[in-house]
Design brief:
The structure holds 2 protein chains of 2 kinds.
Chain A (H helix, E strand, L loop, with lengths): L7 H18 L2 H20 L9 H13 L4 E7 L4 E6 L1 E5 L3 E5 L10 E3 L2 E6 L2 E5 L7 E2 L2 E2 L5 E2 L4 H26 L12 H16 L5 H22 L10 H18 L2 H8 L6 H47 L2 H40 L11
Helix pairs in contact in A: 3-9, 4-6, 5-6, 5-10, 6-10, 7-9, 7-10, 9-10
Chain B lengths: L1 H6 L2 H137 L2 H17 L1
The chains are: A mainly alpha, B mainly alpha.
Chain lengths: ~375, ~170
């Protein structure tokens, strides 16, 4: 069957290009009214400190994506809108509020009810726990509740994800380590898949950036961070809906660790280059010092933002395209967005590896900079 | 930025840091160190194996050349020995020859001497015999001659004549 002499993917690209023109024309005329209604309803609902499900499909998807990007206090795969039933399981809530308060997230009923524990009342609002009175009323100011927030050490979905990945990594890599002894120096089992990656991290990330002499003490951190980010990125692509590496807190903690390790293992030469740059006129040294000092903080900051932004963007785009399927509700549009989602998922796997690589690579680069030996003046870049 | 700060969860941060640092330490002890050690050991092993193979090859070559050298030496030695043996043999033959000749000559000499002495002895005996025989003959002749007077006087005269002449 020949439709046209043009290559097939050209036609596909054309179809995709025209898709938004067709799709946006259809539902927009009546959605505004519903949206307004939905907004009114959510405002009304938020006054009561309770969520209301927006009716409009687009707003619902947006809400769903936003909800997904946040950490969650319970683990739900699916929810039935009409009956309000959620399928999944509750996670433990641990609060520091005059001693540890320990209860199950099921008490919140998916953020719809006020949880009472030991005579204190708590409300879950946008995945944050606020202390309230018995009515569960939140005092809002500029759209943010001003109620007291007890320190929240809950085992959230992200913590669960981290724990799972930590456990998985421990099992995989200890089994790899044991297989060497058992098998006469040759890896066997599941861990064997990761042996080339371990070698890659050593030979192409650690040694070229840090140097043959000093790379060893950083290997544990580099390997752990590489596989940790990689596994969590991949976990984020599973339908369980984890978004751990797309969480600002996680990337911040990783970046802070890189910063701390760089700072505490750096040699005299590194600090010399920051506070008293050799080879430039003295007045310039005073100007360069604060810039260089700021640079040391900007480097890990960029690490943090890069990973966070990449993962969030990936999740948002992927979920939006999946959401498009439900907006189109036509077999051409939906199947096209399915194809697009499929292609993007594959791209996201690449991104998962790439971001893990970049984070590890740049960490190694910063460690290497902190450990650079003094060369000739003209060797500096 | 405000959203980021708003999203920051201190509890999650603490959990993450605790779990992650714990994971690094645990993996360092139970995974990374043994894995990297095993890999290093394996790489060293491969390097050593290659090196020793190379060395073995070199050694083989050395051995081969040594063998050849030894063989050549052995051959030379054999040749030398043979030559020496031949020389000794020749010398022995010569010596034997010379000795034999000398002995022969000596024996001939002795024989000659013996022959001469025998001959002398025989000659002497012969002389004795001849003299005694001639004496006997002379005695008999004289007795015959002296049996008549005339003949005696004639003889004495003749003899006297001879003696005068002497």
């Amino acid at each position: 069957m020949v439709i046209s002499k043009k290559p097939l993917h050209f036609i596909a690209a054309l179809l995709v290009a025209f898709m938004p023109l067709v799709s946006s024309a259809n539902p927009s005329n009546d959605s505004t009214a519903v949206e307004a209604h939905a907004v009114a309803k959510t405002e009304e609902a938020s006054h009561e400190g309770v969520h209301a499900e927006p009716k409009d499909e687009k707003a619902k998807i947006k809400e769903f994506i936003n909800h997904h990007l946040l950490d969650s206090h319970s683990f739900y795969f699916n929810a039935d809108e009409e009956s309000g039933k959620h399928f999944g399981f509750s996670l433990p809530i641990i609060l520091w509020d005059n001693g540890f308060q320990f209860f199950s997230s099921s008490k919140f009923h998916n953020g719809e009810e006020v949880a009472e524990h030991n005579g204190n009342f708590y409300v879950l609002h946008h995945e944050k726990i606020y202390k309230t009175d018995a009515s569960g009323k939140l005092n809002e100011e500029h759209g943010h509740p001003t109620n007291v927030r007890p320190l929240d050490f809950s085992i959230t979905k992200s913590v669960l994800g981290i724990l799972l990945i930590a456990l998985l990594m421990f099992l995989v890599f200890t089994s790899l380590a044991k297989s060497y002894a058992k098998n006469g120096g040759i890896a066997k089992g599941i861990g064997r898949i990761f042996e080339p990656i371990v070698l890659y991290v050593r030979d192409d990330i650690a040694i070229p950036n840090i140097g043959e002499k000093k790379y060893k003490k950083y290997m544990s951190y580099l390997l752990t961070i590489f596989f940790f980010i990689l596994f969590l990125n991949i976990l984020g692509l599973t339908p369980f809906g984890f978004n751990v590496t797309g969480n600002f807190t996680i990337t911040a903690s990783l970046a802070i660790l890189t910063y701390l390790i760089t700072t505490f293992t750096a040699n005299k030469n590194y600090w010399g280059h920051i506070f008293w740059m050799p080879g430039v006129p003295t007045p310039m040294k005073f100007i360069l010092a604060p810039i260089e000092l700021l640079g040391t903080i900007i480097k890990p900051f960029s690490l943090m933002i890069r990973l966070y932004a990449n993962m969030v963007a990936g999740h948002v785009v992927l979920m939006s395209i999946i959401g498009l399927m439900f907006i189109f509700k036509s077999w051409i549009g939906s199947s096209l967005s399915f194809g697009l989602a499929f292609a993007l998922s594959i791209l996201e796997i690449l991104v998962a590896f790439l971001q893990a690589y970049i984070f590890t690579m740049l960490s190694a680069l910063y460690f290497g900079a902190g450990n650079e030996e003094h060369h000739h003046e003209d060797a500096h870049h | 930025m405000e959203k980021l700060i708003n999203d920051f969860s201190f509890g999650l941060f603490i959990w993450q840091v605790v779990i992650f640092v714990g994971l690094i330490l645990l993996l360092k002890k139970f995974a990374w160190k043994p894995i990297l050690d095993a890999v290093n050991e394996r790489e060293e092993g491969i390097k050593n194996a290659l090196l020793s193979a190379e060395n073995a090859k070199k050694e083989m070559q050395n051995l081969k050349s040594d063998n050849e050298k030894l063989l050549a030496e052995a051959r030379a030695e054999r040749d030398a020995l043979m030559k020496e043996a031949r020389e000794i043999k020749d010398k022995m033959i010569n010596d034997a020859k010379v000795e034999a000749q000398a002995t022969g000559e000596k024996m001939i000499e002795q024989a000659k001497a013996a022959i001469t002495s025998e001959k002398n002895a025989a000659m002497a005996e012969l002389k004795n015999q001849v003299s005694s025989l001639s004496l006997e003959i002379a005695e008999k002749v004289l007795r015959d001659e002296l049996s008549n007077k005339e003949a005696q006087t004639k003889l004495v005269e003749k003899m006297l004549g001879d003696a005068k002449l002497n």
